[in-house]
Amino acid sequence: MLLGSGCSSVTTAKIDKNVAYTVQFSGNDFNVGEVVTSEMPYKADNPNMQTLLLNKALTEHKCDTILLPRYEIISGALGKKTIKITGRAATFKTR
User: Fold this and answer.
1) Residue 92 — pLDDT band, cuts 50, 70, 90?
2) If DSSP codes are grouped into helix, strand and coil, which group holds residue 65?
3) Higher model confidence: residue 79 or residue 6?
4) Kind and range of the H or E element at 81?
5) 26-80: per-residue pLDDT in tens?
6) Is the confidence at residue 83, as pLDDT, over 60?
7) Residue 12: what pLDDT?
8) Which of 16, 29, 42, 55 is the Cys-Cys partner for 25 at CB 3.0 to 4.6 Å?
9) What is the rounded CA–CA span in Å between residue 40 and residue 84?
10) Whose CA is closest to 25, among 53, 67, 71?
11) What is the Cα–Cα distance from 56 to 52, expressed in whole angstroms?
């Protein structure tokens, strides 16, 4: 009888973008704060603008999530547009 074993590290991984993740929380899971807003210049050719703005808002307001986010594209002077997020800053409660 021959028994072999080995160790290897993961060198590549594939993430399927078609797989949706659903996580459910209740209001009791969060410390809900005030209404916050964040803005950044809007670039129509960037499909990740909402994600970038959400990450910016989380960093600026030092929170874990933005509850009930609302995105707006605002036209400004000289044709420049801004994307804005508004929602309630929330942090996860620790147990």
Assistant:
1) very high
2) strand
3) 79
4) strand 81-92
5) 878 899 999 999 999 999 999 999 999 999 999 999 999 999 999 999 998 888 9
6) yes
7) 56
8) 29
9) 7
10) 67
11) 6
Instruction: Name every residue whose Cβ is closer than 8 Å to that of residue 51 and which is 6 or more positions away in sequence.
Output: none
How many residues make up the chain in this entry? 95
pLDDT at 1: 47
| Strands 65-75 and 30-41, bridge-based pairing | unpaired
> Rounded distance, CA 36 to CA 86, Å?
6
Q: State the Cα–Cα distance between residues 83 and 39, nearest whole angstrom.
A: 6
Q: 94: buried, middle or exposed (CB in 10 Å: 19+, 13-18, 0-12)?
A: exposed
Q: Extract the tokens encoding 89.
A: 């800053």
Phi-psi region of 74 (alpha: psi -120 to 50; beta: other; left: phi over 0): beta
**Residue 47 corresponds to which amino acid?**
P
Q: What is the CA radius of gyration of the chain?
A: 20
Distance, in Å, from the CA atom of 85 to the CA atom of 33, rounded to the nearest integer, reads 15
